[in-house]
Amino acid sequence: MTTISLSLDTPELAQAYEHGSDRQFNHGKLLIETLGVRRGQRVLDVGAGTGRLAAHVAEIVGPEGSVTAIDPLPLRVDIARQKARANLATAVGRAEDLSAFASKSFDVVYLNSVLHWLNEPQKERAIAEAARVLKPGGKLGFSTGSREKPHQLEPIQRKVLAELGRDAEGNRPHKLTVDEVRALLERAGFIADTVEILTFVDHAADVDEILRHSGSSSFGNHLSHLSPEEKREVRARLANELEAFRTPKGLRLERNLIFAIAHTAGN
Q1: Which domain does 117 fall in, by range?
Q2: Tens-digit pLDDT profile for the chain (267 aa)?
Q3: Structurally, how many domains does the chain consist of?
Q4: Beta strand 250-263 with 191-204: parallel, antiparallel or unpaired?
Q5: Looking at the domain assignment, is residue 119 inside a domain?
Q6: Strand stretches in the chain, DSSP E
Q7: What CATH number should be reported for the domain holding residue 177?
Q8: Methyltransferase domain: which residues (predicted)?
Q9: Structure pTM?
């Protein structure tokens, strides 16, 4: 099993994510809308990054509600703290350890593009912890990478790496299938409302924009197993391959995410 490192993040990557995370922010807003987050609720954002979505949710719940945003990367939490307000608190924390929070203390817990960075035991613990801190009838929502329908970039990148005699492993995400998501929720005692794959279309100016996003959103893990020389060669070959996806709006690529909404049993 490959390991995702939390030690590769840098101030530059954190700032790049803050200014280039529109994709995660936009599908995160869709997740929040689907969850039906409303005024007065107490919400936990797990893996909040630099806090863009948490700040959006704080506006929704209003002064009667509250949002707590946690992330394991201190550099990103530092940026999130700049968005703090009376109803938005931020802290360093991990999805698989919510011991700082009392049982049955939140109305909603969500993880936006987070779960695929956790290995299998961490996933189990994270979803179990979400169930513990949710009130009866509370709602869980998450978006995560789909293994049965990968991003359009992934097979292209695997091809390029294979040509160089390198595998595509590195510190890559641990993606799930729809059936695995349903089983994960069931083991934690959740009742699944929706588990589906949604497709999003992105446009990038060039390969460098794609690589910047991949590096910042993976907190330095993307292609981290390659040498600088290998990375330059991968960049050149990817640029050549991706020209086939060039449109007037830029390089058009599709990505696929599993959206899952579930709830705990009521009283």
Answers
A1: 11-153+172-205+254-263
A2: 467 899 999 999 999 999 999 999 999 999 999 999 999 999 999 999 999 999 999 999 999 999 999 999 999 999 999 998 999 999 999 999 999 999 999 999 999 999 999 999 999 999 999 999 999 999 999 999 999 999 999 999 999 999 998 876 655 789 999 999 999 999 999 999 999 999 999 999 999 999 999 999 999 999 998 999 999 999 999 999 999 999 999 999 999 999 999 999 985
A3: 1
A4: antiparallel
A5: yes
A6: 42-46, 66-71, 88-92, 106-112, 134-145, 191-204, 246-247, 250-263
A7: 3.40.50.150
A8: 43-138
A9: 0.95
